[in-house]
Records
---
Amino acid sequence: MCYGKCARCIGHSLVWLAIVCIVANILLYFPNGETKYASEDHLSHFVWFFSGIIGGGLLMLLPAFIFMGLEEDDCCGCGGHENCGKRCAMFSSVLAALIGIAGSGYCVIVAALGLAEGPRCLDASGQWNYTFANTEGGYLLDSSKWSQCIEPKHVVEWNVSLFSILLALGGIEFILCLFQIINGVLGGICGYCCSRQQQYDC
């Protein structure tokens, strides 16, 4: 097994996960495809934390592209020994993975808080409130209460679905970056590839 190839696979996965996180976060601004709620500031404040755009999105692209470039890294390191340079590159990928962990962790935390608090919506009293803020997330298990949000229509389903996607994808990104830390350390210690023949081929 070549550690660089493993890192490249992780990098490709992170790119697609980051793209989906960005799309999911953007959709949170447009309940039912309408723009007026964003312009009138009737969205959950956790939507404005850009957890999917920045945390699960842009901050994931940096380590993703670094991981993707590791397999073809021809860096010659200490004393002109190619494999030594590649070991240094694998160790450097650990730093990139830490950035990814920070970004994905941010995405997970904000998504979890957004789910726990619930959406901001127009209730029966005609006020824009966080109707489920005091339920500590209990509303998630009782869909019969979701009708308390009159406007935007189906905003609870919208928020729950998209924040759940961000929570799940952020968790997957976190696990992949954590795996790359292990992969990078092993690749740096053991060499870019496990076998001697692979060391010359890489």
Note: Residues 73-81, 195-202 have pLDDT under 50 and may be disordered.
---
Amino acid sequence: MSSPLLPIDDINDYLLSTVGITFIILGTIGNLSNIILFTQRSLRTLSTCITYLLAASIANIIDIYSYVLLRALYGFNITPAYSSSIVCKLQLYLFYISFCTSSWFMVGCCADRYFSSSHNAILRRYSCMRTTFRMILFIIIFISLVYAHVFYCYDANQFNRPSLCFIRNNVCLILDTAYYFTFQCFGPPICMFIFGIGTFIHIRRGEQIRIEARNRANVNIIERLPIHIVKLRKNNRKILPMLIVQIILYIFCSLPLMFYKIYSTLQISIIRNNIPLPVENLYLSIAILFSFIDKIFSFYIYTLSSAYFRTELIRFLTQRCLRRRIVPEN
């Protein structure tokens, strides 16, 4: 007699295969489009934070093909990570690094906006390509070291767990949850919020300086301000809508996985686990796929939220079409 929970496994396989393939197609098109546009001179020279967005798009591509692809293959019962310890560890290690670095690159982008909008010349010095490259390198190295515990804590053939490629014991579960809350769930949003508030304060302060200068009718100050403030303010207005929408969506998409992490940690000693494994595995699959939404659809988010990004996209497509129409002379 078949188990009544078998249809849940079928639903999970169907979800992983259909949604996974859709995410791969849309995510590949979107993030490759981001990479192409962010390497264009008009966007690359707009602000140093574009480099962070470029790095985040590259990390998203790695995330798609190191994790989403394998999750999609699970839906077709192709499960190399379930039986191979090496594949299991490498898959999750690449997932954590690319997923986490993508989030912290967004933090770096917010920090760059904070420094560039400051009226303090010392702070504005940090908004430069040298600092940007150093921060990107630091984030990659630091996150790679932080998640080195994956090679010990995760393993294949973990029966009686939500997934066969899962955490080995409860100590590793607590450690993994602590890292998740620190470096993925709470760390990036809190830093984004702090730098966002700081940027808002800098912009408001710039407006107050303009008003005070205008009230004093000091033409010299009014003429000097646009050189180093008005240009930065215009650039902030072009980029900030993209960042704000991305941050809000990031926080929203992190909630299902956050709830699962809390539940899985509490069930060790406080909550008795009465939920069948197929149901828990289905929720875990949904939570993981949900957490990818902001990274899969980043290109479409930028297109909808930023008029400047749309203008650059149309300009790029127009130039490509014009080049194809040019017929070489014999």
Note: The beta strands are 154-155, 166-167.
---
Amino acid sequence: SHPKPACRYPPSQWCRSLEIALECKKQCMEVNAIRPNQTVPPVSVTLYYESMCPDCRIFITQQLFPTWTMLQDIMAVTLVPYGNAQEFPSANSPFSCQHGEPECRGNMIEACIIHLTGHSAAFHIIYCMESSADVLNAAQPQCLQLYAPSIAWSTVDSCVEGGLGYQLMHKNAVMTRALNPAHTYVPWVTINGEYTEENEDKAMSSLFQMVCQLYKGVKPPACTGAAVRLNRS
């Protein structure tokens, strides 16, 4: 099951912490509709990961998604499901994954969902999958129907089973192989297109604080802890 607890905090608290933002996700996103200056580029966070990697799942569910929920107007997230997989273009099974065939299918499902649903819906669906006990079974029907009800599972399945899914995975393979320095483990995080050990450590310990510090524009209320008054309209 994937319970959706009701928000039990006042408006000034909706984006105050990662834990509250998860509970008050809808309300926190409404607060963030008060958008900062869009002329300042957002902080770009790219995650290279695997769908069944335990550490990747922890980072997505405890750091990346909660931080994006609060700071989506000052950060841009790119998800690249591939990780330590290997590509064999001439083989019957062109991809081999660290956690076996189920992970290859999970990677491809998530790549297809990103392609088919758009970034915001895809991130919600992938968070739903990665926070569930069974990543693959959570995708259909629960997570897809919850966050992208207009997309039929048959559309995702056609992508996974057809040529499009392999094209998307090849694209992710190319992006992953192009990393400089090359990745040596997952999750692997780049900030504004660059990897450093210092940034990686900061992202893993408090991505929220890091994004707030790196953003060059006016800090949103979630970063400053200021109370926000919502317009009822």
Note: Residues 43-214 form a domain with the Glutaredoxin fold (CATH 3.40.30.10).
